[in-house]
Design a protein that fits this description.
The complex is a heterotrimer of chains A (309), B (351) and C (342).
Chain A: H1 11-15, H2 17-31, H3 33-55, H4 92-128, H5 130-144, H6 148-159, H7 163-174, H8 176-190, H9 193-201, H10 205-241, H11 252-261, H12 269-297
Helix pairs in contact in A: 2-12, 3-4, 3-12, 4-5, 4-7, 4-8, 4-10, 5-8, 6-7, 7-10, 8-10, 9-10, 10-11, 10-12, 11-12
Chain B: E1 8-18, H1 23-27, E2 34-45, E3 50-54, H2 61-69, E4 76-81, E5 84-85, H3 91-100, E6 101-104, H4 118-128, H5 134-144, H6 150-153, H7 163-175, E7 181-185, H8 193-210, E8 213-218, H9 221-227, E9 230-235, E10 238-244, H10 245-250, H11 255-262, E11 312-313, E12 319-320, H12 328-333
Parallel strand pairs in B: 3-8, 3-9, 6-7, 7-8
Antiparallel strand pairs in B: 1-2, 1-4, 4-5, 9-10, 10-12, 11-12
Chain C: E1 4-15, E2 22-33, E3 37-41, H1 48-55, E4 63-72, E5 75-76, H2 82-89, E6 94-97, H3 111-122, H4 127-140, H5 157-168, E7 175-179, H6 187-204, E8 207-212, H7 215-221, E9 224-229, E10 232-238, H8 239-244, H9 249-257, E11 306-307, E12 315-316, H10 324-334
Parallel strand pairs in C: 3-8, 3-9, 6-7, 7-8
Antiparallel strand pairs in C: 1-2, 1-4, 4-5, 9-10, 10-12, 11-12
Helix pairs in contact in C: 3-4, 4-5, 5-6
Classes of the chains: A mainly alpha (309), B alpha/beta (351), C alpha/beta (342).
């Protein structure tokens, strides 16, 4: 059976053509070793996000004392503390495990906002054209001009420091990059004969958008989602770094910030390096996964008529 | 429907586009240039007829097709489908008409949604037009276009089909709603020659079977003459000659039609054919004004060609728009009219 | 008979893939002589473009000449390096107008600037000499000399094509290789271009290899031809011989599949199936699965190319070449051809 038409046990679900496309692409992707690896890493992070707190040996905010009553400040990695402790005696490993969850939330929430708003604006502008397009694109241009940090600071001043707030700030701005690209994709797809065929048959605009346009920008949208997840994690970490986010939620970004603030960034490497490394790997995995998906699910298989040879 | 009402009747159809203007032009109130893609085209198509429209790129045939299909709004003129003027229709009425007229595109690689299976592509028009019994209709139509066995093809994606197979699916999509009129944009031209004939034969047979009519546009006279009984030759937005196929090929009247036919390569090394004497290329279809549009290239140009030629019938049944075949003076004084729009004085029609 | 200019002998060209190599051209042989127009005909995927790319070292990165020889004026050139090709062959002896070449004119450069570039790289003429030459060539292809300083977009499609031919003639090559030069052009423009190509042949004795899928153009404008199918040369010879006495089933059916405006009602032939993708060594007839007259032996080994007909140049690669035409005529005459779907 060819890819894409494999039947899941739930026939109705399988017939749903969105699910079929995504599942098909995912299974194709697993076949590519390297992309599968990145995918596995991401799944791992997701799992950590769920079970992290449960498997952590200590509480994330628990200051630990030695038998002698001394605070275990910046203790190097040992059997008891695999990743050592922070400057206030907290177990780094536990903080990492606890920190997975906020990181995952950040990525998913931010990525969804970025692609959600980006698609809505890009597809609408591209499909309807005319004044709708002009208005939306001018709006996008304005948003382009808004600098992230000052905007974040202003919003925080209005709504207060907060974890979710910091993510929303990012989501509200960063969709600007993909809106324009999605719009041009839509412009191209709109002109293709199969869309014209649907229009000429009498399909409504909504039908055309949902049945023809969206599936054909899906691969690009997934890529942008992956990029959005990555960007949000990094940027949220930066915002945490400058104090815009709630410093008590130990996302990996916050950990790096705390390590920096303590002045022990270079000496207590077990504290600063692991979260930084994990952020980098997560972001890398989402980027590479997104690219892999685009390569596989994109349809570069249409050949020109008069081919070479 | 054999009451003599033509399936398609086009009367003095015009489709103009505005050339994009700059802000400066608007400020200085410069009159917008008009691209006269289709300019005063009229013809009639009855039940079970296949007519061709041929012309080179830029002659307006694709715009004509798009306008007939309802994808463009006509600037002027009437389009009557089974006697009803579609330009006057309400939105709901238009939808009904859309199942009467279907279109087949040229490019097999882009005519089908790459994300949809054959079944999904074929069920879409059925859903839009509230037709029931999807599975049976889909299977029957797939069989009609000779994709056998049906089960082999019904769940395939376009990328799993050859060019010829894709075009068959396009044809199936057009036929599944049982239209009266098919508009075809040279669906065989991007296929290899060995499959072209199969597709053309299929189309021919299906039209015969279903009684539908077809308007086939192309730039390739060889394929059009294979499948159409009557041919319209188009040049810069106007029909310059119309005749039954064999008569047109044997005895073209209009100098452009003649040049076109004489330039077709013949697959026979023994056949001596003189190369075309015609120089230059068609002008841009912008602000063309009065007069015969071919006169700048015509070897038989006369002074009277400054006046727009009327579309008249010659003794042997050819209809042509050329001053060589009628006397303009007596025509006009006899009450004949030549309809055209003088762009310099009329108010701007819109897109 | 004129001297042979380009001799292709038993040429096999392959493309590396992740799996086994794909064979695009398999044991192809033909000869192009001085002052001769040679038509290379075939449908998409038959290997004709790969073949001519291999002549001038223009293959994609994963393409390579597996075996066989290419001789130019007697010298073997299939192993020439890029530098050697630049020095001895490209533009000077053999010039190439690639497919879709209307886009191979740099839209940001005027035509004369592009000519100057070519002239500077390949010759030591000065600017004035180059422009003089360009004017000459524009004249030959029927373009106004004053237009040499225009941009490509200021020309129509047909004129762009002629400008490309002018550039191709720049260094007076012995052969022009043109890949689908008129495919995108309307019939009248195509004829205009060919008018000049005819003249060039008359006046200058330049040879041309015309690669196309349109057999009518080859029949009208070429002296010799070869028909390719899925990498194999099915038949080759003078166009009149191939037309009057086709000896390969593909050759017979292909000619009958082309519409002829002189006989618009003639029923066209349909060829079942599609050309196979060849992996590895091609030791079978690639047309066997589509051939109405194939026998078991056709799949056992690649059919040898045998001389057929009366002319020394006429050859076909079919083990039944002596009987297929007669069988076809009989079948055609007796009952109307059944058309099976593709």
């Amino acid at each position: 059976m060819s890819v894409g038409s494999s039947r899941l046990p739930l026939e109705n679900l399988a017939d749903n053509y969105v699910i079929r496309n995504v599942v098909g692409a995912l299974s194709l992707m697993i076949e590519d070793r390297v992309t599968a690896l990145y995918f596995a890493f991401l799944v791992g992070v997701l799992i950590l996000g769920v079970v992290g707190p449960m498997i952590a040996p200590y509480q994330y905010n628990e200051s630990l004392y030695t038998e002698g009553g001394e605070l275990k400040r910046s203790v190097a990695p040992s059997g008891e503390h695999l990743l050592g402790t922070t400057d206030v005696g907290q177990d780094v490993l536990s903080r990492i495990l606890y920190g997975a969850r906020p990181t995952v939330i950040t990525g998913l929430l931010g990525g969804s906002m970025i692609i959600g708003i980006g698609m809505a604006i890009g597809v609408t502008a591209g499909y309807f054209g005319g004044w709708v397009d002009t208005v939306l694109m001018r709006f996008t241009d304005v948003v382009y001009g808004v600098p992230l940090i000052p905007f974040a600071i202003v919003l925080i001043a209005l709504f207060g420091v907060g974890f979710i707030e910091s993510i929303v700030v990012i989501g509200l701005l960063l969709w600007r990059g993909n809106a324009r690209v999605l719009r041009s994709q839509v412009l191209q797809i709109k002109e293709r004969p199969f869309v014209m065929a649907a229009r000429s048959t009498g399909a409504s605009d909504l039908r055309i958008i949902f049945k023809h346009i969206l599936p054909n920008v899906a691969s690009m949208a997934v890529l942008f989602f992956a990029l959005g997840v990555g960007y949000t994690i990094i940027l949220q970490a930066s915002l945490a770094f400058i104090g815009v986010s709630n410093p008590f939620i130990p996302s990996w970004g916050v950990m790096v910030r705390n390590a920096y603030n303590s002045g022990l960034m270079s000496t207590a490497w077990w504290w600063s390096v692991p979260p930084g490394l994990l952020i980098a790997l997560t972001v890398l995995s989402t980027f590479m996964f997104g690219r892999g998906y685009e390569n596989i699910a994109g349809d570069g298989d249409d050949e020109a008529f008069v081919q070479a040879g | 429907m054999s009451d003599g009402t033509p399936v398609l009747e086009v009367n003095h159809l015009k489709k103009y586009f505005n050339q994009s203007t700059s802000v400066l032009d608007t400020i200085l109130r410069r009159r917008q240039s008009k691209i006269q893609a289709v300019d005063d085209v009229s013809f009639t198509l009855h039940e079970n007829e296949s007519h061709g429209v041929i012309g080179e790129s830029g002659c307006g045939k694709t715009t004509l097709l798009m306008t007939l299909m309802g994808l463009y709004e006509p600037t002027e003129g009437e389009i009557l489908i089974k006697g009803r003027d579609i330009t006057e229709m309400s939105r709901r009425e238009r939808k009904q008409f859309r199942s009467d007229v279907q279109i087949i595109f040229q490019d097999p690689f882009n005519s089908l949604d790459p994300k949809m299976t054959v079944r999904e592509t074929l069920s879409e028009p059925l859903k839009i037009h509230d037709m029931d019994d999807h599975e049976r209709r889909i299977r029957d139509t797939i069989e009609m276009v000779e994709l056998n066995p049906v089960d082999k093809y019904i769940d395939r994606f376009p990328r799993q089909l050859s060019g010829g197979e894709k075009q068959r699916v396009s044809i199936a999509r057009a036929l599944i709603v049982e239209p009266d009129l098919i508009l075809a944009d040279e669906p065989a031209s991007m296929l290899d020659v060995s499959t072209q004939a199969a597709i053309l034969n299929l189309l021919s047979d299906l039209l015969e079977e279903t009684g539908a009519s077809m308007l086939y546009i192309s730039h390739d006279l060889s394929t059009v003459s294979y499948i159409c009984q009557e041919i319209n030759v188009m040049y810069l937005g106007r029909i310059v000659e119309r005749n039954e196929t064999t008569s047109l090929l044997n005895d073209p009247k209009h100098p452009y039609a003649k040049a076109l036919i004489e330039a077709i390569p013949i697959p026979d090394p023994h056949h001596e054919r003189a190369r075309t004497e015609l120089g230059g290329t068609p002008r841009d279809p912008i602000d063309l004004g009065d007069g015969c549009r071919f006169r700048d290239r015509c070897p038989d140009r006369m002074d009277v060609c400054e006046k727009t030629p009327a579309f008249v019938e010659t003794d042997d049944g050819t209809e042509t728009a050329c001053h060589l075949y009628y006397d303009h003076e007596s025509y006009v004084s006899g009450g004949g009219t030549v309809e055209r729009e003088d762009v310099t004085t009329a108010s701007a029609g819109d897109d | 008979m004129a001297d042979p200019l380009l001799e292709i002998e038993d040429l096999t060209v392959k493309y590396r893939t992740q799996g086994e190599a794909v064979t695009a051209v398999s044991n192809a042989s033909f000869t192009v002589r001085e002052g001769e127009y040679f038509g290379l005909v075939g449908e998409s995927g038959c290997g004709k473009t790969t073949l001519i790319k291999s002549i001038l070292g223009g293959l994609d990165d994963n393409g390579y000449i597996d075996s066989g020889t290419i001789r130019y004026r007697g010298e073997e050139i299939q192993d020439y390096s890029d530098d050697q090709l630049n020095e001895t062959l490209r533009w000077k002896e053999v010039s190439w107008i690639p497919q879709g070449s209307m886009s191979s004119l740099d839209p940001l450069q005027r035509i004369d600037e592009q000519a100057i570039e070519i002239g500077r790289i390949h010759t030591d003429r000065n600017r004035e000499e180059i422009l003089e030459r360009l004017r000459e060539l524009f004249d030959i292809v029927g373009l106004q000399e004053s237009r040499i300083s225009d941009y490509p977009h200021q020309f129509s499609g047909g004129m762009q094509q002629r400008a490309l031919i002018a550039l191709a003639l720049f260094l007076n090559p012995a052969i022009i290789v043109a890949d689908e030069p008129t495919t995108a052009l309307d019939v009248i423009m195509q004829d205009q271009v060919f008018k000049y190509l005819d003249e060039i042949k008359e006046d200058r004795d330049t040879s041309m290899i015309l690669v196309t899928h349109d057999i009518s153009v080859v029949f009208e404008s070429c002296d010799q031809m070869a028909i390719m199918h899925a990498g194999q040369v099915a038949e080759r010879g003078p166009v009149t011989e191939v037309f009057d006495n086709p000896r390969h089933p593909y050759s017979i059916l292909l000619q009958e599949a082309f519409p002829d405006v002189r006989y618009p009602d003639r029923e066209l032939e349909i060829i079942d199936g599609s050309p196979p993708q060849n992996v590895g060594t091609v030791d079978y007839c690639t047309f066997a699965d589509r051939c109405p007259w194939a026998v078991e032996d056709c799949r056992v080994e690649a059919p040898p190319t045998r001389e057929v007909g009366d002319h020394a140049d006429h050859a076909a690669a079919c083990i039944r070449s002596d009987e297929v035409l007669e069988i076809y005529r009989e079948e055609r005459g007796k009952q109307p051809v059944e058309s099976d779907s593709v």
